[in-house]
Amino acid sequence: MPRLEKLIEQYKNRSDVQFLTLNMDENPGLIEPFLKEHKLSITVIPAYTYVRDTLKVSGIPQNWIVDSSGVVRLKGIGYDSTEKWETGMNEAIEKYKPETAKGSGASK
User: Which residues contact 64 (CB under 8 A, 6 or more apart)?
Assistant: First the structure.
């Protein structure tokens, strides 16, 4: 989660990149204490039923890159605590960003 928070911070000024963090704990009361304990400031949406019933997620964590048309371009299950994860996410975000953003000179 610290690497995710770092990634979110890196893209905070990019209007073409948005992050959603969905939590699938049955008890949403566990989210805030977890964030405080680990000194995380990311926004987490309680979404147990949605994740289970609509997205059909069985393994966590998952990282999805969804393009501006709503098409899932990349889906990764699991997490690598090395910089490899962060590098891979940066590359995927750049690869699937809208064409207008690619030509606009937007920086990371």
Answer: 72, 74, 75, 76
